[in-house]
């Protein structure tokens, strides 16, 4: 399985750089092909330098803290320190990207972008009909592709392995596939929202793991582990299980792409309307407007299972649903942690090690 996933990772990298250098880029791309390919490579190497700088600073700051402030010097074990360093650079990335994505969606234009508020504006004008995207969104995409390539590479070849190693590896590959295809097909508006939901919800996950490595639980740790753990139930449940599924996957992709992309008068639907002798045989109602609830997505699916205006529709839906399944699995791991803490008399640190972290420094490594 590991070899298969690594082969897929290499194919994804090759596809990204080949497309940037020699393929057709979406409208309003601020760079030409060759320049975009070079820029993406520089982002990857530059981000690696930032990651290792954060890891170095983490060790520099936390080693003396562990010896002098944290009870029992929890970071004295090399493996625990390595895990902390890995989590700190991820926290840095998630906070930075959350701020950038929030700025692009809510601040840059002086108001919240309409496509953040209304799912139909994600597709109007339709990406197939020359939808333009501001340069800052392209910048976020280049950054995120660099981040996820580096993240996947470090996960595979460098970082300490956790019990969910394969699940996390699969998650990284699915995310890279979504980034690549959504950029290629010009679906970047919805892509930025998906990225924001992941980054903002990952911040508390990072903090939970960091507090756990430092053993900041109970009274002596100001209940930081417990607070972060309970907060994760709310943020993960809202951003990843509710908002991503209901607003992005269901309304943004499954319904919105069809409601807008196959609407009466939309470029590309002329031949279908002519053959059916009507604009209203694919789920749209006369007098209806986008988002008013009159669109019948089931009728549309029956009449138009596929269409050139719906490129990447089934692939996007499948990849996003795969992500959602993984989110549910991780959420179940949170519940398992809670169960062990409540009914097995384990402290949060020990429960986390058993459910998620894998073997300790004193246990035999079985890779």
TrEMBL record:
<keyword id="KW-0472">Membrane</keyword>
<dbReference type="InterPro" id="IPR016439">
    <property type="entry name" value="Lag1/Lac1-like"/>
</dbReference>
<keyword id="KW-0732">Signal</keyword>
<dbReference type="Pfam" id="PF03798">
    <property type="entry name" value="TRAM_LAG1_CLN8"/>
</dbReference>
<dbReference type="InterPro" id="IPR006634">
    <property type="entry name" value="TLC-dom"/>
</dbReference>
<feature type="transmembrane region" description="Helical">
    <location>
        <begin position="166"/>
        <end position="184"/>
    </location>
</feature>
<dbReference type="GO" id="GO:0046513">
    <property type="term" value="P:ceramide biosynthetic process"/>
</dbReference>
<feature type="transmembrane region" description="Helical">
    <location>
        <begin position="42"/>
        <end position="62"/>
    </location>
</feature>
<keyword id="KW-1133">Transmembrane helix</keyword>
<feature type="transmembrane region" description="Helical">
    <location>
        <begin position="312"/>
        <end position="334"/>
    </location>
</feature>
<dbReference type="GO" id="GO:0016020">
    <property type="term" value="C:membrane"/>
</dbReference>
<dbReference type="GO" id="GO:0050291">
    <property type="term" value="F:sphingosine N-acyltransferase activity"/>
</dbReference>
<protein>
    <recommendedName>
        <fullName>TLC domain-containing protein</fullName>
    </recommendedName>
</protein>
<feature type="transmembrane region" description="Helical">
    <location>
        <begin position="220"/>
        <end position="239"/>
    </location>
</feature>
<feature type="signal peptide">
    <location>
        <begin position="1"/>
        <end position="18"/>
    </location>
</feature>
<feature type="domain" description="TLC">
    <location>
        <begin position="80"/>
        <end position="343"/>
    </location>
</feature>
<dbReference type="GO" id="GO:0005783">
    <property type="term" value="C:endoplasmic reticulum"/>
</dbReference>
<feature type="transmembrane region" description="Helical">
    <location>
        <begin position="135"/>
        <end position="154"/>
    </location>
</feature>
<keyword id="KW-0812">Transmembrane</keyword>
């Amino acid at each position: 399985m590991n070899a298969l996933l690594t082969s897929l990772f290499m194919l994804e990298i090759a596809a990204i750089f080949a497309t940037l250098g020699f393929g057709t880029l979406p409208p309003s791309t601020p760079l030409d092909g060759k320049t975009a390919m070079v820029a993406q490579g520089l982002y990857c190497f530059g981000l690696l330098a930032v990651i290792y700088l954060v890891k170095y600073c983490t060790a520099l700051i936390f080693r003396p803290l562990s010896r002098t402030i944290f009870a029992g010097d929890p970071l004295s074990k090399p493996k625990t320190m390595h895990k902390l360093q890995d989590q700190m650079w991820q926290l840095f990335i998630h906070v930075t990207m959350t701020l950038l994505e929030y700025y692009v969606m809510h601040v840059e234009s002086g108001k919240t972008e309409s496509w953040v508020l209304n799912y139909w504006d994600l597709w109007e004008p339709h990406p197939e009909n020359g939808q333009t995207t501001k340069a800052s969104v392209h910048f976020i995409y280049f950054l995120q592709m660099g981040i996820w390539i580096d993240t996947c590479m470090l996960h595979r070849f460098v970082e300490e392995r956790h019990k969910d190693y394969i699940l996390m590896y699969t998650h990284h590959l699915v995310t890279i596939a979504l980034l690549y295809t959504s950029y290629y097909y010009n679906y970047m508006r919805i892509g930025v929202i998906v990225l924001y939901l992941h980054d903002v919800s990952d911040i508390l996950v990072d903090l939970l793991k960091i507090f756990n490595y430092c053993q900041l639980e109970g009274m002596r740790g100001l209940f930081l582990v417990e607070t972060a753990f309970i907060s994760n139930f709310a943020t993960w449940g809202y951003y990843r299980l509710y908002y991503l599924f209901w607003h992005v996957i269901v309304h943004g992709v499954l319904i919105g792409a069809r409601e807008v992309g196959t609407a009466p008068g939309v470029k590309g639907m002329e031949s279908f309307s002519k053959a059916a002798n009507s604009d209203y045989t694919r789920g749209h109602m006369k007098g209806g407007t986008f988002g008013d609830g009159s669109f019948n997505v089931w009728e549309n699916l029956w009449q138009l299972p596929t269409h050139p205006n719906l490129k990447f529709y089934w692939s996007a839906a499948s990849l996003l649903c795969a992500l959602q399944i993984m989110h549910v699995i991780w959420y179940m791991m949170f519940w398992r942690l809670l169960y062990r803490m409540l009914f097995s008399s384990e402290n949060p640190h020990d429960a986390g090690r058993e459910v998620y972290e894998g073997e300790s420094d004193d246990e035999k490594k079985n890779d």
